[in-house]
Amino acid sequence: MDVYDEEERSIALPELDLTEPPEGSDRRAFMMRSALASAITVLTGRPIAAFAQAAPAKDPPLDPNLNVVKKSKGPVMTTAEEFYKVGPGPSSSHTIGPMRITYDFYQRAIKLPAAQLGQATALKVNLFGSLSATGKGHGTERAALAGLVGKEPATVDPAFLDGLAADPSQVFPVKLGSKTINVSLADIIYDATKGDFHHPNTMTCKVMAGDKVLLEQEYYSVGGGFIEWKGYQPPKKGAPKYPYATMAELLAHAERDKLTVAQLVMANEVAVSGKSEADVYAFLDKIIGAMRATVKTGLAAPTSTLPGPIKLKTKAHDVYQNAQKQEGTARQAIGIVSAYALAGSEENARGHLVITAPTGGSAGVLPAVVYSLGPEGAKLSEDALRQGLLAALAVGYLCKHNATLSAAEGGCQAEIGVASAMGAALIGQAYGMENRIIANGASASLEHHLGMTCDPVAGFVQVPCIERCAFGAVKAWTGHLIAKNEIPINRRVDFDSVVTALALTAKEMNSKYKETSEGGLAVSVTLC
Length: 528
Description:
About 50% of the residues lie in helices and about 10% in strands. It is of the alpha+beta class. Mean pLDDT is about 90; it is low at about 1-55.
């Protein structure tokens, strides 16, 4: 045993760092780090200067001119048709977004004056940031090419994208006025992964005349299939009947006017979009149908190997078959819900049509919840499912509004975590729970995904993404059941606090864990 004399044990207390934190940093986090550094010095007798001074690597801040940033300063204005999108997997930000972008650019290109179109020789697309880093595994170049040749996410035949994967050398004629230009995957360029981009998912599209640029536009795939571009101006909308930017504000409106969460969301849908309730319900019915279809298709698919270098075997079919034989109602239910989520997520990994809820990477979570409440599960009414989807929208809207849905910005917590919270709200509303229970269930489900990184192996939305959807669906049920069985007023952590934590964690998370495949499982798993 080492023996120290009194002089050695008497360590002078370090002076507390009372200076203000660096401009732009989080003051509370700075003070906590300074205090912890001081405590370590007291306990060890050795100053940890590097600890107090070093900061984790961070991404450059998002451009404040992006609409997705600006909208966080007012009431929620997102609508159901903007949020729930149908398109090809495996990623809303890396496939649906880029396809929407290049389709938009094609529409702009054909409007150029005939004299300019006559000079056109090529169409070029450059991918930057996360789109470049993990685009190969997401099929981003195939999605971008599909948009250039005039295909839209909701109607593209998955066989077209599968055909591009099987034969990357295919060439397609694109009509620009009287001019026909041939395009291929060689025209989709994986460019810089690091740089001072306005958004982590940045891409540029160009019409070229030799080395001369006839038309160029910079775009951003900002998560959940939402897109913006340089100079973007959002479409004009109506004012929400119940303006809210937090769950607390939403609940206050609902309590005052004796509304459910779903009823309040519907009132705002009508006011903001100008559509009728019947129109909104008709759209939700399509989404419910699409969610059921993706689960059914995934369950029916025989065990196979997913495309890509991981050579991952599918498991939804096997898990479903074996779960039905499982003894014990609870264990059987967990297995079956997991199988539903695996089915939807494996369809996403195949590049087939899925629903952003909120993203492609989380495409197994909400369909699993919907499927478990429908004819194959709890047998709730179709209207109960519609009401559930409306309540889920409120949760998704608030996470988008005050944090992010993009894994390239915030890691997997922004995808699976938000999807799980939406699932808990859906379950609570579908069963007619009081508003506080709905909010608490969403809070619990999101809280226990905080810090989850996005570290896709080889850049493919397979490992750990597919199984994470199953855990997200089960956590949605867990969050709901805890909220249902506790005393609602006793919950200490409210939904808004968790969303704030989601935003802060996203901001502090090292860029290696934001859909770049540079950390976590992406580097620890060795592919043979």
